[in-house]
UniProtKB/TrEMBL annotation:
Matches recorded under InterPro entries: Kinase-like_dom_sf, Leu-rich_rpt, LRR_dom_sf, LRR_N_plant-typ, Prot_kinase_dom, Ser-Thr/Tyr_kinase_cat_dom, Ser/Thr_kinase_AS
Membrane topology of this protein: Single-pass type I membrane protein
Annotated ranges, domain Protein kinase: 679-959
GO biological process terms held by the UniProt record: post-embryonic development
Molecular function GO terms recorded: ATP binding; protein kinase activity
This protein's record includes keyword Nucleotide-binding: no
Sequence intervals crossing the membrane: 647-671
Keywords from the UniProt entry: Cell membrane, Glycoprotein, Leucine-rich repeat, Membrane, Receptor, Repeat, Signal, Transmembrane, Transmembrane helix
Signal sequence range: 1-35
SMART domains given in the database record: S_TKc (SM00220)
Xref: PANTHER family: LEUCINE-RICH REPEAT RECEPTOR-LIKE PROTEIN KINASE, UNNAMED PRODUCT
Protein name as annotated: Protein kinase domain-containing protein
Amino acid sequence: MHSSFSAVQVSMEIFKHRSFSWVFLVLVFCRVVVAAADPSSESLLELKSKLVDHRNSLKDWVLDGEGDKSSGKVLACSWPGVSCNDNSTTVTGLDLAFKGLSGVMSENQFNLFTDLAYLNFSHNSFSGNFPGGIFNLTKLETIDISMNNFSGPFPPEVSKLQGLVVLDAFSNSFSGSLPVEISKLESLKVLNFAGSYFKGSIPPEYGSLKSIELIHLAGNLLTGAIPPELGQLKTMIHMEIGYNTYEGSIPWQLGNMTELQYLDIAGANLSGWIPKELCNLTNLQSLFLFRNQLTGTLPWEISQITTLTDLDLSDNQIYGPIPESFAQLKSLKLLSLMYNEMSGIVPDVLAELPMLDTLFLWNNFFSGSLPQNLGKYSKLRWLDVSTNYLNGSIPPGICSRGQLSKLIMFSNKFTGGLSPSLSNCSTLIRLRLEDNLFSGDIPLKFSQLPDVSYVDLSRNKFSGGIPNDIYQAQRLQYFNVSDNPELGGEIPSETWSSPLLENFSASACNISGSIPPFVKCKSISVINLKLNNITGSIPTSISSCRVLERLYLGNNAMTGSIPDELTTLPDLSVVDLSHNGFTGTIPEKFTSSPSLVLLNVSFNQISGTIPREKVFQMMGSSAFYGNPELCGEPLKSCSMSKTTSKLTWILLGCAGLVACLAAFALGKYYFRNARKGRWRMVSFTGLPQFTANDVLKSFDSAESMAVIPPSSAAFCKAVLPTGITVSVRTIEWDTRSMKAMLGLISQMGYARHKNLTRLLGFCYNGHQAYLLYDCLSNGNLADKLEMKRDWSAKEKLTIGIARGLCYLHHQCSPAIPHGDLKSTNVVFDDNMEPRLAEFGIKFLRQLNEDPCLEAGEFRTTTKEELSIDVYNFGVVMMEILTNGRLTNPAGESVQRKPREVLLREVYRDNETNSSNTALQERINNFVDVALRCTRTRPTERPSMEDVLKLLSGPKSQRK
């Protein structure tokens, strides 16, 4: 096999050596001419030469030199992806889909292929402008360029293709306006411009497309009103135009598209009522209008669309009851009305729908009991009625058809015992009944629940103990029965051998007995048994729990020493042993624990010396209080002898009394003179006991207190007397706000985590304070977003930020919202570990702006602020995943894009090979978490504890 190029090489070698006759040279040259005489094949070879083909997908595109010029046949007709007419004289189709190709195409690349009818470049990485010259091929019927990265305006020359039937440009980077010229294509049946960056409004002219059957414009940047002219599309079968930002309401004229079977206008900023004219869509099977701002009551006329199989109106502002007329929807499989303002009872007619398999009613105001026949007449698979005002019992036949996989009913007022029939529900995967009034024994037989992975029965009134066969749930990952004060019993002996169990929580359950030995606890990461009556010691077999991260045993009656085996656990970060009877010393080996953040041994009988390592200093004194024989920083010094210690405590007590009396007497004088320059100093763990004068002098090289940072300077640096360099933040306050602000600053100072900047101390007078922080000079995330990182570095960075935020939200009491999480407030320490800066500063300002704000009023805003932190974390995640390409407000933009578009972009930003399925799975998980964090409804976002769990799992977990 020789190409024309190799033939020329041969002839040149012959010429050089002159070993053959001129006659033979002429014959060889003629062969070259014949081989190169096929213009179509040569044109395709030229195309191949200009493309980037890392996978060598076009390796078979070669000339074999056997062509016959007189036959007129195209050699390329035998190449993969090339289609020709019956006699192989003309190329009619070109299919390069899924070839892993990239590069930029030129305008005249395809001029020769005038008979081309089919062109497919989908699922590659082509970029640049799409060549308008392709539209000179007027016989084209199908163009599929989906899943590429073509950019710029879409060429208006498309109007030349009067025979075009399919135009699929899904998931590219086109910009500008939608081409109005599309309206001239009378044969067009499929138009897919979804997942690009088109702006402006949908051209009203699109309503004149005579043959159109599918329009997909979702996930762009479209605005304006939806043109009512679209209602003229009598041939339309499938329309997706959501995930844009329209204005106004749904045009009632859309009810005139009588052939329509699928309508999706979700996430589109629509307002107003749902038009009753939609009931004219008598062929409609799927109606998706979720995540808008629709209001009004649910039109009873929808029940006239008897063909409906999927109805999703969730995440709107719809109010009122579910119409009884829904009894007519006999084909309905999915009914999602969650996240609205609906009320009334759940009508019995829903239980009569024979095809219903998914019912979402959560986050509404429904009351009364559920239909007692629910699940009896349909293969109900997923029921979620959480966060309503429902009462009564679980319908007895909820799993009678043997399909129920998820039963979610938390935060209602359900009562009574659990139906024993739930134990026969072998398909059950997820059971969430927390925060209700259920009582009686827990009748679940885990040996009959082979697939159950998540069980939450917390905050109820169960009794009778934890089922003994819990270890037989082979796929159980999460089990929570906390806050059932009448539960009682002991921890079943084989609990820890459940093979996949990760989280076991049974706090405040009046459990007694001892902790059973830890056998086969290979997956357990969280054990929460605080606030019980557990006795005995910590089993030394806990050393087998190699992935244990958090252990909560506080407020029990446990004894014995802290086992050295705890120090061998590589991921252990939080250990709470407070309010027990533990004795002995703190194991010295904890000093080498790589992950330890908090060891709370307060109020025990621990003795000896607190290890001097930095990690223990960061825990604060509250972790060690209540142990009379324990000494060392941050408690009292160990230099005092035992004989003088008692006397010292007596003297300290007297001194304390005198100090209190003096403070009372001088209080008014202090506050009256605070503005005159009286400074005070407060040091937290890690800062020597400097005086206010030490700090103030360090602001000026001349050691003059007259020159200090002006209030307008948000930050400066200072070198303290021992050579410590600190960052100094200036905070102003009103005298009336000072007390509340001092309390919050103190709480911030005791917040210690490796992913937080440390507040070392502060000095203050009556009108301002200087907060002293660790000086971190390695820059912030915003400056480094475009820095090239591999996936493992991005993963580590993201999880580090999540851990810092999780600590503020869930391990500080009360929680401290960050308030201003963004890439500029993520800084790096000497080891390039991310640390959150500026946490709590926003709320200091709020307290100062409203001196009358009480602590209780301030805390009512905390839940909302925590949710805002989660949203901002999702934004920062997407910035990291896309190397800074998706910047604020990324939350809004990512929610508008279809998930598959986002994934493709993140794959590209992270140079992910399609064959690396493990990496793709991790990326999928991270994108899912970012999307969950940036959901529109705050209550739909996960907590930071859940975020950390999701990020550490192989797949995104759903509610």
